[in-house]
Amino acid sequence: MVIVHSLVWVLLLGVLVAALSSQEALGLTELSQKSEDFIIRVTDGKLDSFTGVRDYYTLVILTSTSSEHKCTTCQNLIDIVQIVARSWFHDYTRSHALFFVEIDLVHEPNMRLAGAIQLQTVPHLWLVPPNPEEQYDEFALLKEQHFIYRLPVGKVDSQAFDLAQFLSQTLQKSIYIRDGDPMVNFVLYFVVTFLVITICKRNAPQLVKNLGRVFAYKVLSIGMILASTTGFQYSRIQKIPFVARNDEGLIIISGGTHYQFGVESLIVSGVYLLLAVSFLVLVYLGSYKTTAKSTLDDQSKHILIISMTITLYLLYSALTSIILRKDSDYPYAFTKLF
């Protein structure tokens, strides 16, 4: 019964999304699916499909594969957009929220589009936002205000990730980059998983026996608790990237209290673990009795207690510094470390 109810809700949600999407957006989705890489290619110099009310974003690729224009980065740009387009439509086929449009000047009719906007150079990558007003100008898509995306220097994979991050921040939808041959990836993951299971099956019983079952269960429990309390499931379900990059470099800590990168789970888990260890060491030192035969004397004990106290302070400050990056009004922080 629960499964039936869930299926009903899924169907109702699909109907609702379709109802809220315009007929134009539905048509563009069908047109995108006819393309192998989900990119709509304009070859006749006409943008009739993008007139009227637009309730969707449009990523416009202005490029030229003509030898006359000698554009060395144009093909590279297309390769990057193809990766992102496939990843987008893999997860959001029925969202009707974003479409990819290529205008290649190798097609002579497209020169009229370049002339309408006085295009002098290629390539360009523009993200045109939705427009709720009726548009009858066939060049409206190219003349309206838009976001300009500048391709960073780097490898194709990192550039595709950067473009996906740019679109994710604008559309508020996480894009999980999928690239490579699916069959090759399947075989690779299968072989690695098979080897890991085989090794564990042969060596794990002896390892558990040597360490003791209780210790193994404790480690497993701590790992599961840390994964559960630091947002691992959120990152996995939302398909959030591990880290992000902008013009200034890597972004480790995301802004905002309702978002995080995958690396933040590891960082916070590490801080929690070190906090727990430092606290236990401090408790142990507090109950440690010095004698003539003990390893520590009173002076060493006091130095270690002070060191552990400072460590606890710094670790808590590191934890609250992460929170301050997300919420500057957080009232319970110590020292802001970064």
CATH superfamily of the largest domain: Glutaredoxin
Q: Please identify the top-level CATH class of the largest domain.
A: Alpha Beta
Structural class: alpha/beta
The biggest sheet, with number of strands, parallel, antiparallel or mixed sense and barrel status, is: 5 strands, mixed
What fold name goes in the CATH topology slot of the largest domain?
Answer: Glutaredoxin
For the termini, the CA-CA separation is 51 Å
Q: So what's the overall shape? A: elongated
Trace the largest sheet across and list its strands: 1-3-2-4-5
* CATH architecture verdict of the largest domain: 3-Layer(aba) Sandwich
Explain the overall architecture.
It is a single chain. The protein is an alpha/beta fold. It has two domains: 2-171, Glutaredoxin (3-Layer(aba) Sandwich); 240-326. It contains eleven helices and seven strands. The strands form two sheets. It has a five-stranded mixed sheet, with helices on both faces. α3 (74-92) packs across α6, α7 (182-211) packs across α8 and α10 packs antiparallel against α11. Residues 1-20 have low confidence and may be disordered.
